Amino acid sequence: MRIITISREFGSGGRELGKRMAELLGCAYYDREIITAIAREDSLDERYVEKMMEGPSFMTYPITIGCTLSYPPYAKQNEISILISQQRVMKKLAAKGDCVVMGQGADSILNEYQPVKLFVYADMEAKIRRCQERRPKGEYLTVRELQREIVRVDLGRAKRYELITSSKWGNKENYHLCVNTTGIPIKALAPQMADYARFRFEMEKQETSEIE
Amino acid sequence: MRIITISREFGSGGRELGKRMAELLGCAYYDREIITAIAREDSLDERYVEKMMEGPSFMTYPITIGCTLSYPPYAKQNEISILISQQRVMKKLAAKGDCVVMGQGADSILNEYQPVKLFVYADMEAKIRRCQERRPKGEYLTVRELQREIVRVDLGRAKRYELITSSKWGNKENYHLCVNTTGIPIKALAPQMADYARFRFEMEKQETSEIE
Questions:
Q1: How many domains does chain B have?
Q2: Which end of chain B has fewer CB atoms surrounding its CB within 10 Å, N or C?
Q3: Portion 106-135 of A in contact with B at CB < 8 A
Q4: pLDDT confidence of A18, banded at 50, 70, 90?
Q5: Which of B184, B203, B207 sits opposite A203 (nearest CB)?
Q6: Do B173 and A184 touch (CB under 8 A)?
Q7: In which domain, by residue range, is A16 found?
Q8: Domain CATH for B173
Q9: Is there a cis peptide before residue A72, judged by omega within 30 degrees of 0?
Q10: Is the pTM of this model over 0.80?
Q11: Is B209 within the bounds of a domain?
Q12: The complex's ipTM?
């Protein structure tokens, strides 16, 4: 099984890189699919699952679950159940075959598959520029607001990562390769990273056959 | 000018990677050469220069300089003079043409040349194994002693890096690519990294020609 996990800073182009790598390697790409599957399996609203998986660990506002309205501490209980579902869903998807899995602690959850683990990052200035270029129609955030948003999203990712893996999000020790996308078009970078993934898979195959 | 700077954890195989990349790219390789040049220019003992460039910022033991014996605070003064020489020597070498420069804050000192900046690291276990495999004849250190030595050398590198660059050694933000060598033969990794360097140089060339 050839699995690539990609953790990334918000605005670094990690998602585009993951999609392009999956295309180049001819394998599945899982990102939003994981949220959809959790929502379906747990009969929860997709947006709610997404919020829970994005935000910090403790939610302090009411949220709709399916058709009912939930307040903490129900939220906390749901959060734990979502975490469990996430692991189940992710492993089920991974078992289907070669894939690229975005974020969500996949590098730790899918560790048994010996995935190639990438971390994608960029300078704050580059991340802000990227967010500006890709902003939804009608949305206009100032540079300061964008920076705050980037920090907020990444803080949520870091908190959830630490909850799942008990290790620090973005610490290079957790990954095989950390790549800075500042000033590099993702389209040009993707074949490089796909090559690197192929190389790592080849190395692991050799190592396995040596052990055998 | 095509310059690659390589910072590395002790025992990660960064030096071997640098040498192999220089061979593959057909360019100069500077590591020990910088120390030799500083010693020559400043009429200092090579081992002394090496010790100063390896160790932490404040030395608290007597050391021989050329033929004389020096005690702090002379050492402090020499340390500053070595730092200045280091910058001069490094820029002189870089100006000669394409090269790979190992450690010593080269990523910051040579920033004007827009070098490709790599950081090489590995798990502690892998670094210890590598040190054991490459230990000088007759030297035998226990695993605990090796680990202490690895931490000591890297602490020295970190301190000197911070002194030169005012930024944190090993922080991925300072580099273009951070590569984990755990379980990967350097000989196999080198062509991958040389390819990546070529790719980055190509990208920069395109960007420059767009600006022009």
A1: 1
A2: C
A3: 119, 121, 123
A4: very high
A5: B184
A6: no
A7: 3-191
A8: 3.40.50.300
A9: no
A10: yes
A11: no
A12: 0.87
